[in-house]
Amino acid sequence: MTTVMLDGVQVTAQDVAQVAFKNAPVALADEAWQRVKDCREMVEELVRTGKVVYGVTTGFGKFSDVQISPEDAAQLQVNLIRSHACAVGKPMEIPAVRALMMLRANALSKGYSGIRTETLQLLIDCLNHGVHPVVPEQGSLGASGDLAPLSHLALVLMGEGEAYYQGERLSGGAALQKAGLTPIQLQAKEGLALINGTQIMTSIGTLTFVKAERLAKAADMIAALTVECLRGIPEAFSEEVHRVRPYPEQIGVASNLRKLLAGSKLTTGQGEIRVQDAYSLRCLPQVHGASRQVLSYVADKISIEINSATDNPLLFLEEGKVISGGNFHGQPIAFAMDFLKIGMSELANISERRTERLVNPALSELPAFLSHNPGMESGMMIPQYVAASLVSENKVLAHPASVDSIPSSANQEDHVSMGTTAARHAAQVIDNVSKVLAIELICAGEAAEFVGADGLAPATRKLYDLLRGIVAPVLTDRSTSDDIEKVAAALLEGEWITAVENISGELM
Length: 508
Prior knowledge:
EC number: 4.3.1.3
CATH architecture of the largest domain: Up-down Bundle
Organism: Tumebacillus algifaecis
Protein name: Histidine ammonia-lyase
GO molecular function, one term: histidine ammonia-lyase activity
CATH superfamily of the largest domain: Fumarase/aspartase (Central domain)
Shape: elongated
CATH topology of the largest domain: Fumarase C, Chain A, domain 2
Enzyme class: lyase
Strand order of the largest sheet: 4-6-7
């Protein structure tokens, strides 16, 4: 497997996904190591001379005016980690922890944080050896960075806390020992360098964004199948319509639908059955396209954040300066995650409306609830309820976290971003969206049994066949919970997209 190189400059969201989901190894570029070494020398000189530097020769937060002697500089960092490691809640999932470790290493590789090479090497070794810290997901204000949860990562490097290793949950020291690694003794500035940053919100946010991109493509594919099963009118997706409202994303979705529906024997012309379709079909490019605009915005912010120095203070070698600033403030990611929640919630909202059209006999020519024995059997009646429940839940989760702020540290830190809350809620929204889309796909698959799968376009027939590979037709009533979960997982994994694109051509 290809090693992902970290240089603090050009890591991508897809790189993060490879490390998180595929366990790709990481390594630091040679020039990055040199930057780290040079910056560390600057820290050691500051300690030797006793210069007043926040978090190095002073306390933290409201204690920033308390002087710390050089001989206590190392113990200060140990105390910092132990006192700040008070996050709560369920542990972050291992892919998100892997992303977190990678992104923290990438930020440190920029050479503005003052960490020692041996400490950074241990962080990389833990990632590559599969020592994954147990990081509770709740407790960050999103400024000064993700202090509480990141401290649980730092604990493991010290041989404390807990970590997962080869499927076991162990003490941090035991996990390191089993992996053949040795804990470090934190020195001046290192504890602060490890925890003062936005990597919790950014790791969750990056993986959520990657999943959202996959679901956006999947939504076009599933919608195309629904259009066929409802004998929809593809003229609404014509190039002429969309070039006169030239949003690139809207144009792209319309192009996707034309590719996906090419060769269909089930779609109809204007006036053949009806003059125009309901909005949930006819306005697909406009709605799905607008959600793609949100993804474009989020992609830009994620790309910048994963290659940024987000701790405090920052050391600038060329200028010979140590500057206390606020790059740890998560407002950009907080806004991006809140926007992502809204954009993806709409994909689910319109999907649920298409599901309703598939199961409601008043809105289609299909049997009531796609039942093969209506009345005696309920068919797909209740999966639509589940979709409705999930989209309603998303409306609550989509409330912006970024508009809230609670002062902390005796009002020294008087405005915070709540960016990690926004990212966590975005991840929940994406999970719900995957299930809503799965329900639509399962219902469209059932509808295809009635309208005739042989009439499907080649691309949507491929999607239908992929569905049938894991979900049998619902010929008699049965529980469909496992079916929904399996299809949702397949949509999030993304391989179905590649399979369909092999037939339709590349989709936007």
